[in-house]
Amino acid sequence: MISTGEMKKGVSVEIDGSLFQIIEVQHVKTKKSAVYRVKLKDLRHGHITERTFNTGEKLTAARVERRDMQYLYGDADALTFMNTQTFDQINVPRAIAGNALDFLKEGDVVQVLAYGEEALGIDLPASVTLKITRSDPGVKGDTATGATKPATMETGLVVDVPLFINEGDTIKVSTAAGTYIERVANA
């Protein structure tokens, strides 16, 4: 149990059988008493809600863990991950995984948010390194305008890249925006 005075950003709580993560806490003083206005994100469904709690109210703390897990494979319904310490495997439904599959290669290690054995989401790194499998050649002399061309990554993601990037090159891609960051030297 945590009291309203212990609420802070990032803490996970259980309210009425639902799991929430605290996004923002405001302590508001009114003429009668002080209250806490809290912005909460539903960890199962993703929507955001606001609730007001009186000073001294208690909430049930939820133990949501971040586990390092290796991506093994995906099928029509789910993505399969393996815990890198215990070697246990879990399935993450595609609806929860969202667009993470665009950035995952077999063998990549990411953090999976879990509540007990229930997967709640996938935390991708800020950027990933992907190899270009298909790209049209750039037009020589057309580099002054900062022009780009589409390139297909090994995961199937299509990213706009500068004209000097070629098929077979390895690039760094932002997972937040799905955009080109830089070319990576091939090993």
Give the radius of gyration.
22 Å
Q: Topology as H/E string?
A: EEEEEEEEEHEEEEEEE
User: Can you tell me the CATH topology of the largest domain?
Assistant: SH3 type barrels
User: Mind telling me the CATH class of the largest domain?
Assistant: Mainly Beta
CATH architecture verdict of the largest domain: Roll
Number of strands: 16
Q: What number is the mean pLDDT? A: 86
| Number of helices, counting only DSSP H or I runs of 4 residues or more | 1
- Low-pLDDT ranges: none
Q: Tell me the strand order in the biggest sheet.
A: 1-6-2-3-4-5
How many domains? Answer: 3
Major sheet attributes:
6 strands, antiparallel
- As a percent range, the share of helical residues equals under 10%
Intertermini distance: 51 Å
Structural class: mainly beta
- Classify the beta-strand content into a percent band: over 45%
